[in-house]
Amino acid sequence: MKPKVFIDGEAGTTGLQIAARLKARSDIELLSIDEAKRKDADARAAIMKKADAVILCLPDDAARLAVSLVENPNTVIIDASTAHRTSPGWVYGFPEMDKGQRAAIAASARISNPGCYPTGFIALVRPLVVSGLLPADWPVTVNAVSGYSGGGKPMIAEFETRETEDNYRIYALGQAHKHPPEMKKHAALAHTPMFMPAVGRFAQGMIIEVPLPLWALPKKPKRKDLHKVLAGTYADERFVKVVPLTEGDAIKTLGAEGCNDTNRLELYVFGSDEQARLVARLDNLGKGASGAAVQNLNIALGLDEGAGLSQ
After folding, report:
1. Does residue 144 sit in the same domain as residue 193?
2. Is the pTM of this model over 0.85?
3. Would you call 116 a catalytic residue per the annotation?
């Protein structure tokens, strides 16, 4: 019997993208709710009762409420909101993060989908902290830019109707943002990183950068040392590509949209032996959101991890 999957919040940006990745598949049955009842708690609870897996594409408070509607503790819940990314009892849904992470996802019925910025940041930083090349208490800075689809329907409308004429803008100026807590926890850092996000006038795609003054690090690593750790960490991964140093050195510029419509995450080590510029590129709607949710769903249900996903 095919596993039944329900997307709570299918009408949102992430929900629509997940549905598009699931609708053509023959290995699952996608459950739908009547449009008029999509905010009816009783109707949602009834359809969740039929589901083997529920994907939540809701604001944080609504996601917490939705979890309470799921009566069966064995029903897999994949939450795409921020609500449970650092919560006890929830497994962080970044399969490539650690050698045991896939097994943890497969064994859990409560999976929190990572944020788009944290996905790139953690992929770059955690292996270096674990290896000892980057001290856990280092004052890490992350600079990042995303397409405007990352802001959901309001921001999409703002840019596409020309309500704003901004081509590029920074935000979270007071250092208050939902992503740093999960960045700190899952990158194994002792302190919250300084996060400097921005949005550009392009629909999707993103770049995350972490600058490291190698001369100042205790072990004085060279650029090749950082690359070796990252390459070794993700050597057998399907969706994470650590770009060879020679290939990266041949690049003069790097756009944010190169991984669009894929579940690919590209990692680069630019710079010199004095100053390294770690870069992650991904689709904020792919590996940064809906693609990651589908990947986690596949793992949790024991299906082909890459089903419905493009590399």
Report:
1. yes
2. yes
3. yes
